[in-house]
Design brief:
By secondary structure, the chain is mainly beta. It has one helix and seven strands; from the N terminus they run βββββββα. It is about 10% helix and about 45% strand.
Amino acid sequence: MEVLRYSERRSSIRKPVSLEVAVYYNGLGILRCLTKNLSLHGMLLDTGAMVLPQNAAVDLTLIHRLTGITQLQRIPATVVRVEDSGAGLIFHDLSLEVYGTVYSMLFPQKESYI
């Protein structure tokens, strides 16, 4: 009996993270969503009833609070997977600031006390 094996195609670990994201797609305007998971290279969005087309170029605005201040960061992305209530996105051309923000969300530093 032959066993089928599927390889993991993701280039980095994804963690379940719920963040507010505004998605701009030319055909739909602005759509507010929540992330289902996040990695250094992409995210899975819960888009509800709205469907983003496969291979669509989108602009995300990541909305997060850091030290009591709401910050907005722009992330260009492409839809690489479409699901019933969501879309998988891959990021493009992240600035160092945005990459650092995503990294800190995925791998928070524990404070050390001496």
